[in-house]
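We modelled the chain as a single entity of 371 amino acids. Its sequence is:
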Amino acid sequence: HFSYKQKIPRQLAGSLPNYYFTFYPDTYDKDKLNKYVAILGDSFGQGSGDSYLSSKYDYSFAHHLHNMTELNFLNFARGGYGSISSVSNFERILKMSKNNFFQSSLEIPEKFIFFFYEGNDLTDNFDQYTETDNFLSVEEYVNSQIEKNLKDSDKKIIEQNIPIIFFLKKIIFNDLIRYIKKIDNYSSFVVETTKIFNKISGHAVSLSQDEINSLDLNKFKNFEKKVQPLESAAIELSSEEIMISLEIFFESINYLDQKYKGSEIIVIYLPSAVSSYEWEGPITIWSNYISKNKLGFLKTSNEQNNYNRKFITENILKFCNKKNFQFLDVSEFVRTKSKQNLFHGPIDMEHFNHYGYKVVSKYIFDNIKLK
């Protein structure tokens, strides 16, 4: 009841405890949760983007797929998650549901939909992997990290059963203290106050409202320079580093496959903004590649980015074919449709906008067996 049917205003939803944020999207019938589809992934799987920021009701893949199929969808995806964290969060919430005073324990899902986003999933995986070197194999590393991440779930029993305390604590204390620390003069007061109002109203990028209103959606090059830097198909990584990152993704899926043999696994590949359009080069990207200190701005080309994208998708396809998983790459579909309409922004140019989520969801519905 605390988080059901998106009753909490959007600008406050991020303050929900992690357990309850799973039940915030109105994409399921809470009285028939014995059968559901589990959504795994990062911010794309979660539904970040213009629709979320602008408080649209159907802001995610789960919303649109729920409307098309009437199946139950529970969203375990979270912004910033890599492959291991995605699996860990599902495991954590499934375990926590067994200790919930107000809700029956969650069943094992009928299906997993694992959204793989090329923009930062690979760099996140590789960065985390290079932080530890005590494992003989990627499989051992992945399994041990998942188990390690699960150890904190028992500490969350109070939080999940008295959520209002932690909800108010985060809103009143955490956010307020963070806000006060940034203010040291009148100028910073104006800046930080403006940021807060911009966030609440859904405006989160540097484009002015006049620029947004004047955009010609059929002339992408008129403003493509304004929205860079963007994320790409892991051009920061070498082929060998990409393969290690993919192995981490594969072993994370294998963990689910081995533990939940009765649940079908579906993998969906999502392109970055750079892969979604034909850009005028050179293309400026933002790199968060910590391991080799490639933080900051880098340059790439359509050719190099497309080479990486095809290398990544071909290897994921081989893995899914071997494991008999359904796999759908939406890249070419997005690249074709984006010639008529923008799939991103104009507020958030990293994630799909409402049109993007809606038409890609329809493409998923048309090409994946969900029932």
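As a brief sanity check on the tokenised model: Residues 200-207 have pLDDT under 50 and may be disordered. Residues 57 and 257 are 33 Å apart (CA to CA).
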